[in-house]
Amino acid sequence: MDRLNLLAFSPFRLNRLASEFSNALAADYARFGIDIPEWRVLATLGQHAEPRSAAYVVRCTRTHKSRISRAVGHLIELGLVARRESGDDRREMMLELTPQGRQTYAELVPILLAREAKLLSGLSEAQRRDFDRLLGALEESLGLVREREE
């Protein structure tokens, strides 16, 4: 029987790293009264000038639609996100950051970029570039939405 060394198993290692990164960032989101799925909605909408659908957020973040729906509901209650009908399909609701949502996004981004820099500080500049390139290759092999597709 083959044995699996869990600590050497790439999917486990990636998941463990992702969990550590997310937990480190979660405290920053919590200061603004939001959680991880809510931040994912804010971040996805914040990088675009035009509204986006909830389906777009789901596709980009790979977060289950029910979690995104709950996150959107809470963000609307907080006054950070607004819904509006799509011009093309009145059944589809488009999401956009409110002025308060844009302000929260603008306040959070530098905090999170600083946290990311600290988390990656154990890597040299060349290692960071390699890490980014390797992540991109994995994303591409899995058909994930990537930055340059935006």
TrEMBL record:
Which Pfam family is an annotated match for this chain, by its short name?
Answer: MarR_2
- A Gene Ontology biological process term: response to stress
| InterPro entries to which the protein is assigned, alphabetical | HTH_MarR-typ, MarR/SlyA-like, WH-like_DNA-bd_sf, WH_DNA-bd_sf
Q: Name one GO molecular function term.
A: DNA-binding transcription factor activity
Entry's transmembrane regions: none
Domain (HTH marR-type): residue spans on this chain: 1-140
Protein's name according to its UniProt entry = MarR family transcriptional regulator
Q: What is the lineage of its organism?
A: Bacteria, Pseudomonadati, Pseudomonadota, Alphaproteobacteria, Hyphomicrobiales
| Gene name per UniProt | marR
